[in-house]
Amino acid sequence: MLADTGRLIARRAASMGLSRWSWGEGVVMHAALTLADALGNPIPTFVTAFVDEHLAAGVDIAHVNDLALGATCADLWLATGEPRYREACEQLLGWLRNDAGVTRAGNGAIEHWPGGVWADTVFMAGMFLIRYGLAVDRPDLVAEAGEQLVAHAQMLQHPGTGLYAHGSHLGETIWCFWGRANAWTALAAVEFLAAARRLQYPRVADLAESVTATLERQLLALADCQPEHGVWDVLVDGQEENRGIVETSAAAGIASAMLRAASLGIAPARTRQSGWQAITGVHAYVEPDGTLARTSAGTVLQLIPFGYSVIRSDRIQPWGQGLAMRAYADALTDLTTHKKAPQPS
Fold first, then answer.
1. Which residues of 266-294 are buried (b: 16+ CB within 10 A; e: fewer)?
2. Backbone phi, then psi, for 311, in 5-degree steps?
3. CA distances from 187 to 46, 99, 119, 163, 167 (A)
4. What DSSP designation does 307 have?
5. Each residue of 47-83: pLDDT tens digit?
6. What is the CA 187 to chain-centroid distance, rounded?
7. Which has the least CB within 10 A, 215, 237, 244, 290?
8. 24 backbone φψ class: left, alpha, beta (φ>0; ψ -120 to 50)
9. What angle do CA 254, 46, 185 make, to 5 degrees?
10. Could you tell me the mean pLDDT of each successive run of 10 residues in the chain, 345 residues long?
């Protein structure tokens, strides 16, 4: 059932008509590779066709979100050895190193926009740095992603709850605990920690201690505020302005992170239970054609909680499809390891 549903979600993603080199497409394409690997399938042709078309036309990089497809290029280079994929990664890395539009906060966190640090960045840029660092044996790039995780946690992880805010505005953190922000940060953290296990690099090992601590706090906090049906509200702490407005893409991403953390032995056992609870909840929102319903729209930083309440069940969203594919991929991998899902408590 998990495999069949994952394939259905992937087919719907492939038929969306994705056309831009941007973050939503990046989430979909790398998730499609992840799901294909979990299923034991070859690289999906719609992924290579999309990337090759854009590389042939020339990629225009204008924002940190445009790095999101770099993780896919890195994995395609590792799988095929085709020079164009490595050249694309070098172009993205050159932009990150040299473009005047890449601004940083005082602690080194890459700003999503000048004057604003967003949780999204550690996934969009961090996944690229990690996957490319592994592909070309450059642990310094993996360490750079870890440094971004630490810097973002300093600014966005609440010292009391352990949950992540979406972002900061002009140096002030806006304490709205947006679900997808918590998904982005948790997913980037487990990707970094999985990479750290493969490397013998002192800086990565040092950073892994800090990232492990922040991730454990976050996942336990998310488990504590998870509703019984499994799908968190759009603001995961049940903030009264958004209470009862459930959002599925965050639940899928958090489920993926929880199951991967469990496979790494990082978080307490109950986070695996919480991850499966989220998978069960998300499954109810997969429509017959493979669309993940109740996914929020593309969301800029909001200064008031109710600004996060826009759910687009009338329109398929690429990040919903991508995070759902990740969730089903990691559920399949978890079952391969444990043979069965945990029973509800």
1. bbeebbbbbbbbbbbbbbebbeeebbbbb
2. -105, 135
3. 24, 26, 11, 14, 17
4. G
5. 999 999 999 999 999 999 999 999 999 999 999 999 9
6. 5
7. 244
8. alpha
9. 20
10. 98 97 98 98 98 97 97 98 98 97 97 97 98 98 98 98 97 97 98 96 96 98 97 96 96 98 90 97 98 96 94 92 98 91 76
Which SS3 state, helix, strand or coil, does residue 312 take?
A: coil
Q: What sign for the dihedral angle of Cα 192, 194, 200, 202? A: positive
What is the DSSP secondary-structure string of 85-98?
Answer: HHHHHHHHHHHHHH
Residue with tokens 């307490």: 268
**Token pair recorded at residue 188:** 């980037």
Task: Report CA-CA distances (Å) from 259 to 9, 262, 326, 341.
Answer: 19, 5, 11, 11
So what's the pLDDT on residue 340?
86
* Other beta carbons less than 10 A from residue 1's beta carbon: 7
Reading the block at residue 70, the tokens are: 């770099």
